[in-house]
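User: I'm new to structure prediction. If I give you an amino acid sequence, what do you actually give back? Let's try with this one:
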Amino acid sequence: MSEHDNDHNSAAARLVAPAWGADGLVVAGLAAPEQPEVHVTPVQSNPRAVAVSSDGTRAYTANHDAGTLSVVDLGPAVPAVLRSPSAGKNPCAVTAGLAGDQVCVANWADDQVAVFDKEGLSSPVTVDVGKGPCALAAAPGGQAQHVCVVNETDATVSLVDVGTSGSPSVTATVPVPGVTRAIAVAKGGRFAYVASRGDGTANGHVTVLDVDAEGDPVGDPVSVGAEPRALALSAEGDRLCVAAYGSASVSVASVNPTTGRIETPVSIPVEPHPVAVAFTPDGSLILAVGQTSGRLTAIRTDTLTPTTLDEPVGAVPAGVVPGPDGRFAYVSDQASGTLVTVRTSPRKTVEVRTGAGSQPVNVAVAPDGSWAYAADSASGNVAVLDLGQLQPGTPVPLGGAHKPWDVAIAPDRTFACATSPGTAALLVLTPAQGEVLTFGGAVTVKAIALAPNAEPHGVAITPDGHYAVTADAGTATVSLVDPKGGKYTIEAGVVGCQQPTGAALSKDGTTLYVSDFASGSPNGQIAVLTRTSPGTWQQQTPIDSVTGHLSGPHELGLSADGLRLCVANYQNGTVSVLQRATTGDRWAFHMTVDKPAMFHPYGLALTPDGRTLYVSNAAGNNATVEAFDISGNPATHQRTITVENGDSIPPGLALSPDGQYLYAAVSKAWLSDDAPLGMVYGIRLSGGGTAMTPVAASPAAAHVDRPNGIVCPDNQTLYVVNQGRRETPVRDAFLAVITLDASRLKVQKVEQQALDKDDTPYSIAIARDDGTCCIANATSGTVTVFTSNVTPVKVGEPATSRPWDVAVSDDGVYACISDRKAATVHCLRLADREVFRVPVRADPMGVACAPGGARAYVANHVDNSITVISLNGTQGRPEETATWKHELITKPESVSVSADGTWLFVTTENSGAVLMLDATTGTPRFTVPAGRALAAGAPDPRAATPLVYLADTAGAAVSVVNTTALGRVGGTEAALDLRQAVVVPADLKGADR
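Assistant: Good question. You get back a string of structure tokens that encode the predicted 3D arrangement of the chain. For your 993 residues, that looks like this:
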């Protein structure tokens, strides 16, 4: 679809110009402004100039050789000549839109001007002026009261009063030595600006005439470059530019519209022999054409910075005219008879459809820029887009109830991620083993559950690809997700145990307790390790057997507050209960749990509040679980639960996080069958039952094979350590991840993670906050660590915090998260997870980081502003440095930064246009129509590729915007003279089709 399908404003605009070589009037339709549709209406001989009535219904050509004025009806699709009345000898200039809709023609040979009525029906009224009248100018906007006539032969300017229809008169003739045909009249008609040559190669001048004061000069003539050929005033009359043909420059000066005075001009070098100059309609650019080089220069009026188009726009360009909205300009090449179209601002080039009924809300572009993903919030798919061929591919269905919001692609393309707020999940898209993601390549989708009600919205991936970072609107957290899953080993020298048989982790995963059975040594110990950084652990003072009243310690139970630790003493049939007042205190023995008598207590499960303890027991050659209330001293026995009769090995135990279900793993490892052995049992504790029921039984359940340790990471999942067998017949060890069905007592599905049987994996522990999982290995003395896929970092409370979007600095130092409720950007330092809070303005939504890691930008939706954050502020921490406001920044929703750091791309609520801001100053430079309702943008990641891709939610497409401000588009055959051209806007009646 073309960029102009929705461009109603310029659909019927026309460019009108004389074609003196073809004796015609060229009318170029600008419905598709990059490719004008040209029609030529024959008029009489040698049309030298053209004008259009103020209502746009009539065009007029001054036919030099025929001595006539052709009146052309612009209403029909093909304009038609209505009449061609006599206009005097050698008419060479014409202006229209005067008071009473009059038309004025300059007659060179007669030294007169002739004034016609709008339709050319009445005989014209002629007025004598100076010698050689060659150019006319009147105030823009219609109903001008005066016409300024340049008389080239006697170097004067005549002022003709046309305020009374049919009665024109000369009110003054002002000498202007060296006068040229370059003249303009300011809005309102009071001041005229006339260019004149200097002597020889000397500079030219601009003289200001006060039309209301009979042409009195306003101050002295202002010096400009040599041989001024063309002159233009901005639409507001506050800026003047002059093309100095003899000095390869454009003089630019500010003008006081009230007094008419010109400030000292600034000379801007341009291409040799500038022959034409013009302002774009919004006054942001000056366009100048160099006749010798054929190249176009665009000068920004705010900075006076010139940019020259690399390729020529013609062999002999003669004029330049901006289009009605300033996004395109048109240059006439006299040598080739071509109307050349030039892009003068960024523009939408094309769109790629994302599927019928789709609602794309975010886009991620592959690092090589060849393809992209778009999150389609309506269909539950991730759309796949070929950015080379600009066509859609086969979408990736996420499955289930997942509906994506945001999407990100890892720098190495080994995975991509999409958030699903409604299902509190992060969807990970991976290619085939050993491959990378490509357009059209096979993709596997895996859902990683975040915290319940997390509502993840924004997602970004760290530069090293280690983490996906999500902004969790529902839980006031930021989740660090390891899509690949982490696994490492704490070596035996760090663990410091001879025979690890049990493990417990603090709720936050930073402290690890490992029981050391230490056969052959006095009673064992509890090793204590603290995590000093990700993957790094340090020994602390262990709990010795005397302090802990230990006797062959096995499994451990740690309360959620970290103040109570229970140890199963396998050798003496007791449980030691230790406690402390604060987590900074040393552990002290509290009591022994020993009644009823227990044999080889092994497994422990402790409720989060530390009040109820479950202990596995093998007394009487039966595997049971004894439940104790340990809130008082001594402990009180509450109930016995049968696990399996005739089993002399007590099972490992696990309690669901909600405390409703208890599970037991029975190993049977002493058997030597070359087949899966063992059982997993479970019971709903509130049901009043006295015996567990099988959940999974070998050999039918191959995922249960000599199970030892067991833990519940959540209420629907079991992690079961299957120890394997080192002796013949050898059996592999593995960790079974069992997903339970709704009953929580039957298996729904199973996944496996390989373990090393030679380590003899034994007991397992999990950190409730971040899901880190540790397995104590009895033979090797090591601990295997599975880092959680998800590490939530709290940034506030749900009542007052709503994290929304996230961006990661490209140096990997910070993740920046906008918080809509807290009016804050949380800057999470990834190395140590410290959060720095930077207050911003109301309702911050989109956030983006600039290249280099120095800055972040946030779109404040309610405040109508963009806040700039220095990520390395004056105190070495993030801080606000500026907040930009502008009338164009209205309800901003998203912000992104070009790969070279030059531009900010801002989308605003329910808008089909993207706003381009200078990333240094915040000044809006361009408003680019690009769709129906743009949600977010993703710049091409390659600095040399000036493209941004925008999710058009209402348009079911991704729009492609070329962000370059100057470029040749193409040419259309049309031998016309743009020095005399007029653009008829779409809102004039004559432009209606």
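You can read the tokens as a compact description of the fold. Here is one thing that stands out. Helices lie at 492-495, 545-548.
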